[in-house]
Amino acid sequence: MKTFNIGEARDNLSQIVDMVLAGEKVVIGKRNHPLVKLIPLIEEQPIKKRVGGQLRGQIHIADDFDDLSEDILEAFEGKHP
């Protein structure tokens, strides 16, 4: 793990970013006290695009799924204690 003070990091930012992207662990500190660790935001493997409809025909939703019973509706309206 390579440690840089803030001034060194500011002067060598491009090289430090290259180091982190190459897999090296880098810490930035102040007065030789570690403050932050740099990590790459680029994923090693690209995120796969999600495709819908994988369970089509395997799930059933009742026709009255969105209907509220009277007691639940009254509870939301504050009519039940």
TrEMBL record:
SUPFAM superfamilies: YefM-like (SSF143120). Pfam families: PhdYeFM_antitox. It comes from the Bacteria. InterPro entries: Antitoxin_Phd/YefM, YefM-like_sf. Belongs to the phD/YefM antitoxin family. Antitoxin component of a type II toxin-antitoxin (TA) system. NCBIfam families: phd_fam. This is Antitoxin.
